[in-house]
What does this fold into?
Amino acid sequence: MQLVYQDWRTDWFPPMVQAMLEEFHASHPHIRVFYTPDPENFEQRMLADMQAGTAPDVFQGCCTHLPTWAQMDYTLDLRPYVEADLDQATINDWDPAQYRSFFAPDGRQFGLPKFHGALALYYNKDLFDEYGVDYPDSSWDHEDYLTAMKRLAQDRSGDRRSNLPVDSDLNRASSRSLATRLWGSMLDVSWDRVQVHVNGWGGHFVAPDDPARCRMCEPEAMEALEWLRARMWDDEVMATPLDVRNMETRQAFITGQVAMVEDGSWALKDILAGADFRIGVAPFPAGPVRRVTLATTDGFGIYAGTKHPDAAWELVKFLISKEYGRAMARANFLQPARASLVDEWVSFIREEFPGKAGDVDIAAFADGHLKGYSVTAEIFANMADAKELAYAAWDQIFTLGQAPVEQMEDVCRQIEEAQWR
It folds into this structure.
């Protein structure tokens, strides 16, 4: 019996997969698994393959696209298998917020956790020391965060060290274009990275009890969105993607263009390997209403059109095992989905980077999982159209600074209209 398993194409992943599949084949001699890397234009190609009936038997997915495939009935309902084969101790080892994210509103289960990516605040200790700013810690809220951004945002041309908030006499346009500009912080302007701020203000993108109702234009959400816009365009202390030439957030941090960055545990190895300064990590700053952090929804699913669902389930059970989670944690520092593996994960990182990671609070990434304040991406019933509409507005509001957050009132109306298409 043959299965096709599709997963990441990054350099480190294929060798790890092949080694682990040897173990699976040894214990399942009647199943032969062929690993294939995710294609370029992954989301579009996968959707086309699913529509054509040629999708892989088992695949990885996350974020907004995995639930979108489930909405289109392209994923197998895993509930019967989970109920028959997984014990409660295994389920309890996962972050409840992440586990719940793999259920559709009608109760169908379309995935199981692959790893637990979590958002935290990276900071450059050398820059904090240079400008006399106290390091972030678990007590920080968004006011502390803003205060630090304002003190760290600098014009570093020549020997001059002058802060560049909005009240500077320097022309805004020229100040944004300075090659030597140091920004206080940066976030990835994407669905869940913006949403986590809205949740901290007590708001939502999607009504928890109605996946067709948009809440982006309610006061709590609008206040959070305005807070982000103002940091980018009024105070000019938070970089937009264009300010760092569309670099990934981690690269903007590694290259010293931002003093802090909102990024995840998935970036940890790149940052430790690439940064030539002392690194710190702190829990994500608390919002005015609540403390939250992001738990990604990276998971494994089974194609609804597979000819071998039982064999595919055997493979998924192997992929969610401690052994496979441990292998990913060791190979590229992927934060395990299982709480019981967190200490091992931290030890792998310290072993490989004893100097750089020795005093880094790596466990800060697991804080939301262990203390129960993680949130996951909120999903509309028609996610594809909702995401397209929101991203177009955010380009104008955040990236270009050409629209007020009140534009989200029209966007919310359009999103709700799209739910009935």
User: Anything to note?
Assistant: Residues 383-399 form the longest helix (17 residues). Confidence is low (pLDDT under 50) at residues 164-174.
